[in-house]
Design brief:
Elements lengths: L26 H13 L1 H10 L4 H4 L3 H6 L23 H17 L9 H22 L8 H8 L8 H11 L11
Length: about 180
Amino acid sequence: MTVLRLNPSATSSYGRHIRTKMDKVTATQLSTYNDEFNADVKNKLATLTVSRDAYSEALGDRSSYLQHPAVFSHKLSIDPPITNQKRSGRCWIFACLNILRLQMMSEYKLEELELSQPFVFFYDKLEKANWFLENVLATMDEDVDGRVVQYLLKDPVNDGGQFDMIVALLEKYGVVPKDAYPET
């Protein structure tokens, strides 16, 4: 089998690794590629950059940040600690509860308050599970390979949400401080 070289004039072996003949890659070749790659300071910097959690920030265009600095026309009189959903799929809950928390802190003159995101998340899952099970019962006479049943089975209880969903949850179940229903 013949393969075209992507860069036939490359000077390093890892730049010439696509051969005109499909040879087996040996451990010696891999070691050589690795050594040559790591000998280049730019490669070390790139590896370090993309191996961090915030690599997207490092890859951003700095000139854009300099042209458009973050300037705010209003500063809140209260500055509560930041809440962090990490990667839990609850951003919509955190966003709404943070807005509600600021209003409550201002209205009740509180220095500190965090509302329980897990409390709202529990009831969100309960409502979604109920919706799923009700729809399973409603479609139990349909073909399991049918479009509607397959839609239901694809992602029965997902994490996402939106404004109208959290409004309905807060109206039905309320909200509690994080101390009353903490993360587990």
